[in-house]
Amino acid sequence: EKAGYKHFMAKEIAEQPAVLADALRHYVENSGGVNPALRLPEGLDFTQIDRLTMVACGTASYACHVAKYWFESLAGLPCDIDVASEFRYREPPLSARSWALFVSQSGETADTLAALRYAKDKVAKIVAVVNVSTSSIAREADLALPILAGIEVGVASTKAFTCQLAVLALLALKAGQDRGRLTAAQVQAHLADFALLPGLMNHALGLAGEIESLSDQLAEAQDVLFLGRGPMYPLALEGALKLKEISYIHAEGYASGELKHGPIALIDNRVPVIVLAPRDHLFEKTVSNMQEVMARHGKVLLLSDAAGVAEAGAGCWQALTLPQVPDLLAPILYAIPAQLLAYHTAIAKGTDVDQPRNLAKSVTVE
Ligand code: M6R
Question: Are strands 299-305 and 250-255 parallel, antiparallel or unpaired?
Answer without folding.
Answer: unpaired
